[in-house]
């Protein structure tokens, strides 16, 4: 497998499996953003290149990384014993430059983000966040590792982690989601809801969270394929988001709900000097 750096004016790195032809495109300088995943000759991810070209606009597409929070906090502020820190929706990882390197086994790439003067005003912890992206047969496996680099006796590092993949679909009106529980939490009304009611409104725009119950299948009959998210605890909550008329559906693994670092619900803690690993896998099959 080969990792090619950007050429010309393009900011995209490309990692290719010569045997299958599958590939990843990544822009580490823009939040470690995976901008493309070609699998079986088809692009799996939706990506708004025109919007991406304007750094003043938020990204719509690819796989943004949500860290150290998913969603937002009350007043967009993280309250800790160390003080109060401004923290925007979905955190800062998606806005900072990462580094990139091939994995030693040659089966993927490693993206790395370290604390810096850019992160510390929002999150007063010494940390390393690594994402390992591995191309597998008809699949993409993602492993995240959070290391608390604080000295002995330092406070544990609190966080939530999520991924925000934009899955390209051919016809949102015909898309089916299989494997979700009957009940969910609607982020638009901030109230419990019936999952079936949410799924009936994908074309109108939805944003809801479900507890993990195993793999979730996104069936796109018009596109002729199924994309399956296989989440793993503790990143086993699933968020579904649509933004019509964009031809995509976000199928997102989260470790905690909105406000977790404030309420404590499913908040993850990493003691000083230790690390925690999370992961998920996306697979593709044709209909």
Automatic annotation (TrEMBL):
Top-level taxon of the source organism: Bacteria
Cross-referenced InterPro entries: Aldose_1/G6P_1-epimerase (IPR008183), Gal_mutarotase_sf_dom (IPR011013), GH-type_carb-bd (IPR014718)
Coiled coil stretches, renumbered: none
PANTHER family associated with the record: APOSPORY-ASSOCIATED PROTEIN C-RELATED (PTHR11122), GLUCOSE-6-PHOSPHATE 1-EPIMERASE (PTHR11122:SF13)
Protein name: Galactose mutarotase
Species of provenance: Cyanobium gracile UHCC 0281
Phylogenetic placement of the source organism: Bacteria, Bacillati, Cyanobacteriota, Cyanophyceae, Synechococcales
